Amino acid sequence: MAISTTEVRQEPASFRDPANRVFHVGDEVLRGLDPQAAEHWRALAGSTFFPALVAARKICATEDAPSTLVPAATGAPWAAVLRHERIPFVSHPYEWSFGMLRDAALLHLEILSAALADGFTTKDGSAYNLQWRGAEPVFIDIGSFEPVREDEPWAGYRQFCQTVLYPLMLTAHLGVDFQPWLRARVDGIEADELRPLFGGTRRLRPGVLTHLHLHGAMQRRNAAASTTDVRDQLRAAGFSRELLLATVRGMQKLVRKLDHRPAESHWSDYQHTCGYSARDRVAKEQFVAAAVAAGTRPRLVLDLGANDGRYSRLAAGHADYVVAVEQDPAVVDELYRKLRAEGQRRILPLVLDLADPSPGGGWRGVERAGFAARACADVVLALAVVHHLAIGRNVPLPEVVDWLTGLTAPGGAVVVEFVGPEDPMATRLLANKPPGLFPDYRRDTFEALLAARGRITDRLELPSGTRTLYRTVVGG
């Protein structure tokens, strides 16, 4: 039976390729295909490489679905409809650590290499074509595959450079965090923006001359040339699929060489610098575990200010999926590498400044949804976070509570820690502020704010006496 169009929501990020569109129907993710895209899908499903990579969990699971499930944008029925597995939490490349972006790049190139060997290619090379199952990358853009055309270069090469390779080189070669650069522009870093930073001997660093300087020069030379002209030039130069495959394998070797291990920060060894006593730590862990486990099993937990992931791991024992958010890219990268080594598929680490979370971006500001729009958690953990926002970043306490409860699904819970002004950490933060700037930063005020937005079901003052934990059911 067809589903009413009022129940169908088109994915805002799915509009650049009119041959296929992605829709959400309840918890289902569906893709409509036009006649040519449907033909490509049938060839893809019958290929050797595609089913093997789906079975290996490197490409998202996909199957045929009734064509009546979603409406076509033109009013004509889709030639085919696909059903995809649902990714637990959608993230953006500027929220990934260096190791995450590099592993996503390697998976993308591995898939492209396998596709080329089997007579297929991908239309684009965007980092947004990948998502995560915990610490495991997965390719999601099934509509990007098409049969390869002889004598043509990879259409996604420029996009891959701008959203993947250039960000990796920026961090690996210069030690500059790529996240703000990617966040600033949805299409990635242009060669002209990066080239001035790689002059002199820096031109000789791996990948720079070939993929930045020569690529940029080729773009400028062919700026006025048509696609047919470029294709004819490549054919005359002896370009072939074998040469393209060799180029992709060369890029794989390059990406494997790129690495970045930053110096440890204050937050890298949080368990030894946080100042909790052994009694505080045990009491806090017991409270958090009980708070997450209370009621119905959570589908999604947000751990805000996750640091080394200690409480994310604790929450993962009682929930389907945990998103571990931390501001420091080095800390997130270390956590990711550990989770990846463990084969962890239920904890996703992300780089995010809680006082400046990812906004909506791209076309009309909705093509890439902001963090708050994606977050609808059953449980929000905000442990040792409130004082950093309220004192360290001057965010009014009511605003902090509003934000935390706004990330929570109706009936969900916020598990939050209030660090009193007499606590050593709060005292250090207050010492850098003008006297009397935060007269309302008190426990009784904080409790009243929580009670106004939900029902406080549990409360625990830690043995040290300066920190209190709360579990509040939002709207309860």
Fold and architecture overview:
Residues 1-6 have low confidence and may be disordered. Helix 3 (98-117) packs antiparallel against helix 9. The radius of gyration is 25 Å and the shape is globular. It has a seven-stranded mixed β-sheet with strand order 12-11-10-13-14-16-15, with helices on both faces. A five-stranded antiparallel β-sheet has the order 1-2-3-5-4. Strands 6-9 form a two-stranded antiparallel ribbon. The chain contains 18 helices and 16 strands. The two termini are 38 Å apart. Strand 15 and strand 16 (467-474) form a beta hairpin. With 476 residues, it is of the alpha/beta class.
Strand arrangement, major sheet: 12-11-10-13-14-16-15
Shape: globular
Instruction: Label the structural class.
Output: alpha/beta
How many β-strands, per DSSP? 16
Describe the biggest sheet?
7 strands, mixed
Q: What is the quaternary state of this protein?
A: single chain
Low-confidence stretches: 1-6
- Report mean pLDDT, rounded to a whole number: 90
Distance between the termini: 38 Å
Number of helices: 18
Our estimate of the beta-strand percent is: 15-25%
Rg, nearest Å = 25 Å
List keywords for this structure.
476 residues; alpha/beta; five-stranded antiparallel beta sheet; 18 helices; globular
Gist of the model:
This protein is of the alpha/beta class and 476 residues long. The chain has 18 helices and 16 strands.
